[in-house]
Amino acid sequence: MNRTPRRYRISLHLSGGQSEVVHFTSLEQFQDWYQGLVNASAEGAFVNVPLSDLDGEFLVVRPDAVIGMRVEPQYALIDDA
Length: 81
Description:
This protein is mainly beta. Helix content is 15%, strand content 38%. The protein has one helix and five strands; from the N terminus they run E-E-H-E-E-E. Strands 2-1-5 form a three-stranded antiparallel sheet. It is globular and about 40 Å long. The chain starts with 6 loop residues before the first strand and ends in a 7-residue tail after the last strand.
């Protein structure tokens, strides 16, 4: 039986040594956001990173500041982790 992830945990690693963890409810939602990150063409442009399920809560980063990502499927509730 195949398990379906409840959400995806994304660990963003930023150029200053900071890390931030965000969650997406589906892989497609993450891929749509990631395309916006990759396609941010203006020099010095900012990209919104949704921090939680609350509307309007964002981390704002420059695309070139993101130096790495880790994508992990989460099968349990976020509170169980």
